[in-house]
Amino acid sequence: MGITVQKLTYYPVKGCAGTDVESSRVGDTGLEHDRTFMAVDAVDGSFRSQRTLPAMAAVRPEIVDGGGVLRLSADGVESLLLDVDHDGERRPVSMFGRDIGEGADQGDAVAEWLSEVLGAKSRLVRVPPGFDRDGWGETPGKVGFADAHAVLVASQASLDGLNARIETAGAAAVPMDRFRPNIVLAGCDAPHAEDDMRQLDIGTARLAYAVRAVRCAVPMVDQLTGLRAGPEPIRTLAGYRREPAYDNKVSFGMKAAVVRHGTLAVGDTVVATTTVSGPAV
Question: pLDDT digit string (tens) for 147-160?
Answer without folding.
Answer: 999 999 999 999 99
